[in-house]
Amino acid sequence: MEPTIRGRELGAALGEVMQRAHKSVPELAHVLDWSRPRLYRLLHGKRGVSNEDLSALLAQCRVTGEQRRRLLELNEGFGAPGWILPTTDQCLLARQERQAFRVRQYATQLIPALLRTPDYARTAGVPGREDIFDLIGHPECVFFLHEQALHTPIGDLELMSEQLHHLIRLAVLPRVSIRVVPPAGPVRTPFRVLEFDGFRPLAYAETPVTAIFYEEHSELAVFYELMGTLDRVALDEEESLACLRRLAAVLDEGAGLPASGNRL
């Protein structure tokens, strides 16, 4: 079975449970009278078990209460593709981004969380992402920014200027690509695509109240087509960097700050 996001999350959670209980795979498999491969497949999200069997595992690891209920609920949806969660729950997205070898995101109204300065994030009133990975060490990140996201006023001119200069610094890092989408760009809905080694990609989009992970091949095809459209209409990296520098210069002048070249 190809691991789904739910299966991987259950396997990772059970691995943490076993670690806290100081239970090894050989030890737990012996006590449960399971084969080791069966337990390994569960931990890698490749095979589910009945709630009765999972309850036995959780009992051995002394898992009770709300955590037990949550893991049993997760197990019931083990093989189902995709996932719908409250938008306020950003932990799952953060874990998936850390595991991906490529993150591609399209933003339309605000600067993406992975590119925000702390002041921008606080002023925007968006839930913080304290676990954001270091973009320097991440394999590949591609950001398509609709021009509106660069013009949406967050805080004062000085705050926006610092955010633009932050984008300029990030744009020249290896494995980071920032491309500006002109106002006439045809794609209106923000989304992202995460790609992994060893299992299928994920697409992610939000509504005002829900966060949706997509895994079905037919769904992913739609998002890859949208990504192809963005690739065709967006400015290239050099043109995008020039656009960021022009906008930063305008903000610097408006805020009475030093010229852009003196702030990088």
Question: Summed up, what is this model?
Answer:
This protein has 264 residues and is α/β, with parallel strands linked by helices.
Describe the structure.
This protein has 264 residues and is an alpha/beta fold. Helices cover 48% and strands 14% of the residues. It has a seven-stranded mixed beta sheet, with helices on both faces. Strand 6 and strand 7 (210-214) form a beta hairpin. Helix 2 (25-32) packs across helix 3 (36-43), helix 4 (51-60) packs antiparallel against helix 5 and helix 9 runs antiparallel to helix 11 (237-255). The chain starts with a helix and ends in a 9-residue tail after the last helix. The mean pLDDT is 90.
